Amino acid sequence: MSELLKTPLHALHVSNGGKMVPFAGYEMPVQYKDGVLREHLHCRKYVGLFDVSHMGQVIIKGKNITDVARSLETLIPISIANLNEGRQRYGFFTNVSGGIIDDLMLSNRGDHIFMVINAACKHADIAHMREHMAGVEVELIENRALLALQGPMAEKILSNFNINIKDMQFMDISTINILGVDCWVSRSGYTGEDGFEISVPSEKAIKLSEALLKFEEVKLIGLGARDSLRLEAGLCLYGHDINSDTSPIEAGLLWAIQKSRRKGGQDAGNFFGEQRIFKEIENGPDKKRVGIKPLGRAPMREETVLFSDSAGNENIGKITSGGFGPTFEGPVSMGYVSSKHAVIGAQVFGEVRGKFLPALIVALPFVKANFKR
Amino acid sequence: MKYTEEHEWLLIENDIVTVGITEHAAEQLGDVVFVELPEIGDLVSKDESICVIESVKAASDILSPLDGKIIEINEAIVDTPSLVNDDPSETAWFFKMEASDMSPVDEYMDEAAYLEFIK
Q1: Superfamily the domain A10-54+142-232 falls into
Q2: In this structure, are residues A230 and A237 in contact, taking their beta carbons and an 8 Å threshold?
């Protein structure tokens, strides 16, 4: 096995008692001394600081930004050309069969598109863009760390460094001077809480983290709580809840495909997988991603098979993410069931250790989002 | 007190054995969120999986350390799974069993050997 990569914050994790594990080729903290449960609850109440430097930060440039946007729109079925400067949007690369290659955040930064992609997919995503976009320059940024500051007090904390962040709305992005360096700050995240993602030059990452951690409201949060936070927020984890077989329509991500890219829209179609995606928008997909709330206390984890009946006769789908929701105070899962069974309030049964345990199909999220809109 | 390689502790009083998990095991598991216990009267065999513990991270089994019959279970840890993290060595015992064959106990570790084992 090749050696694990380290983020610019590696030493900080170790000195703060981070339990380091391999993740997407990096050595990352799964938790610190407090453990997943307390870290999760802390982030929902105060502020969590996450190192997400393993994710890919990419700059895409071309003749002009419209050119870049139009090019990207052939790979990503969302509207990019009409995204205003200083705004961010959620999207995904699709393949020819309408599956999802990766999900991402992209923003209009005036003269270029800035994109954040999943760590495990970043090299493949970049190769994909280079292969299919002519006259466009795709650069992986390797000299910046990415921090996420998430939680209801994130604005209060970050405004100590630069008051201008108070003017940012959910999904705004801006260059903000923090401790004398230009950071690329977006008001977004992966927890369902208000918060910011801060791209900072690698050599300043520890200094900034330590300055943030001086506030007693701010605690380091590991990947374990990052996962339970996003699960309660109903957000997809690539490679689990979405993959190269699942379409955005099956995944319940139609909201991310603006009307202008759908059939009849002014920039309709002309993206990979258009045939399947349009067909599924029109006729409905065969299966749908849903929230699943186990009625007992046993968590139903990834790969748990779901049945329509308590005898386990009719297999209707499976769980793709599941665990315990510390804020929800109970087990929470999401997964796919055949569309016929994807009815809010319907009872299903998950096979756990040979028993068929009852669960309900529920609307996502489990914990309401707390964004600043 | 005796300890197994599965990180269980056994408190032995004649042929009645109280079983729990060690502090080391509780720490490794992380925050416990679900416990499933056997039923009183269950006849169990050594190394049979008879309890389930789920933490925020994963599910694990507890094996019966001996052959015998379950005579008491600790409902408190079913109601409040976090007790397993708070006090694994005492309050958060899992079950009591009446052993039908005590001979495997000789192979289990004493405290000094267990502390060496987890080093």
Answers
A1: Probable tRNA modification gtpase trme; domain 1 (3.30.1360.120)
A2: yes
- Give the one of B33, B36, B52 whose C-beta lies nearest to A324's C-beta: B33
Task: Please list, residue by residue across B24-33, b when 16 or more beta carbons sit within 10 angstroms of its beta carbon and e when fewer do.
Answer: ebbeebbbbb
What pairing do the DSSP bridges indicate for beta strands A218-220 and A47-51? parallel
Task: Find out whether B12 and B92 touch, Cβ atoms under 8 Å.
Answer: no
User: What's the token pair of residue A67?
Assistant: 């050119």
pLDDT in tens, A169-179: 999 999 999 99
CATH homologous superfamily for the domain A286-373 = Aminomethyltransferase beta-barrel domains (2.40.30.110)
For residue A62, what are its two tokens?
């071309």
CB-defined contacts A:B, below 8 A: 38
Residue whose pair of structure tokens reads 């280079």 in the numeric block: A130
* Alpha-carbon dihedral sign for residues A161, A164, A169, A173: negative
**DSSP characters for A175-190?**
EEEETTEEEEEES--S
B115 at the A interface (CB within 8 A)?
Answer: no
ipTM of the complex: 0.85
Q: Which of A297, A324, A353 sits opposite B56 (nearest CB)?
A: A324
- What predicted TM-score, i.e. pTM, was given to this entire model? 0.94
